[in-house]
Amino acid sequence: IARGKSGETPTAEALVTRAVAAMGGMKRFVSRGDVVVVKPNIGWDRAPIHAANTNPDVVAAVIKLAFDAGAKRVVVADGSCNDPHRCFQRSGIWRTAYALGAEVILPAEHRFRTTRMKGEVLDEWPIFTTLVDADKVINVPVAKHHNLAKYTAAMKNWYGVLGGRRNRLHQNIDTSIADLATFMRPTLVVVDAIRVLMRNGPQGGNIDDTKVMNQVFATVDQVAADSYGCTLIGQKAENMAYLKMGHERGLGTMHWQNLRVKEV
Q1: What is the pLDDT of residues 89-108, one digit of tens each?
Q2: CA 120 – CA 116 distance, rounded (Å)
Q3: Mean pLDDT throughout 197-219?
Q4: Which pTM value belongs to this model?
Q5: Residue 200 vs residues 73, 208, 212, 218: alpha-carbon distances, Å
Q6: Per-residue confidence at 43, pLDDT binned at 50, 70, 90?
Q7: How confident is the model at residue 4 (pLDDT cuts 50, 70, 90)?
Q8: Which of 14, 110, 125, 249 has a CA-to-CA distance to 209 between 20 and 30 Å?
Q9: DSSP assignment string, the chain
C-alpha cells in the first residue's frame, strides 16, 4: 500500500512505482518479450476528476514499468459501458497510453469469441479476446462505490472482458463477479485509490461524491485487493457476497490483514 507522506501530494507515478517496487518490482511479473495487457476501468464517459475510470497517470505508470521490464508490446483495452470512443478519449487514457507507445484497442465485434467459461452464471459468453490472449494481464482498476455490488475494483473490473448483454448479469451480480474472477487470473493487480468515488457509483458525475486519498496498492491477490479496498469507502469485506465466494473458491483471501502487508 503506497501512500503520500503527511503534507505530501505524491504523483501517481511515484505511488505506482513505490507499490510495485514493494511487490518485488515489475521484472518479477513481466519477462523480456512478453505481450502485456493493461486492463484499466474505461467504462464511463467521465473525466478523471469524477473518479469513475482509472486515473490516466496510474495507467501511464504501469505501462512505463511494463516496458522497462522488457515487454515487447503493451496493449490497453477495456469493454466500455458507454460509447467506447468517448470513454477512451474523455478518460484521458487513450492519449496517455498512445504517447507512451502502447497499443489502444477498443471493443469491436470481431474481437469477441464465444467461450465456455464453466461458471455458475457465466456458462458460454462472448469474450474480448484481446484481454485473454496476452502473456500477462495487469488489472488496473479504480476503487469506488457501486450501487449494486456495494464496492467495485479488481474483481468487478473483469466485466470489461465480456461482450453480449452484460446487464442480464446484474440480477445475479455477486456470482457473476466470482465467476469472472475464477476465469480471469491477473498477473498483478494495481489499484488506483488516488481519488475515490464514495457514493453514486459506478458512474458518479458529481465531484462532491469523490474523496482524494492519494493511495495506490498492489497485490497478486484480487480477493485481498477488494477486501482491503472496500474499507476505503466504509464497507466491510464480510458484507460483500462476491468476496466470500472468491474466498471460498480459493481465488484469494478476504482476510487481507493476515497477509504480509507493506506500507510504503
Answers
A1: 999 999 999 999 999 999 99
A2: 11
A3: 96
A4: 0.98
A5: 36, 10, 16, 25
A6: very high
A7: confident
A8: 14
A9: -EEPPTT----HHHHHHHHHHHTT-GGGT--TT-EEEEEE---SS--GGG-SS--HHHHHHHHHHHHHTT-SEEEEE---SS-HHHHHHHTSHHHHHHHTT-EEE---GGGEEEEE---SS-SEEEEEHHHHSSSEEEEE-EEEEETTTEEESTTGGGGGGB-S-GGGGGGGHHHHHHHHHHH---SEEEEEEEEEE-SSTTT---GGGEEEEEEEEEES-HHHHHHHHGGGGT--GGG-HHHHHHHHTTS--S-GGGS-----
Residue 215: how many CB atoms within 10 A of its CB? 22
Q: What's the rounded Cα separation, in Å, for the pair 152 and 143?
A: 6
Name the grid cell of 19.
507499490
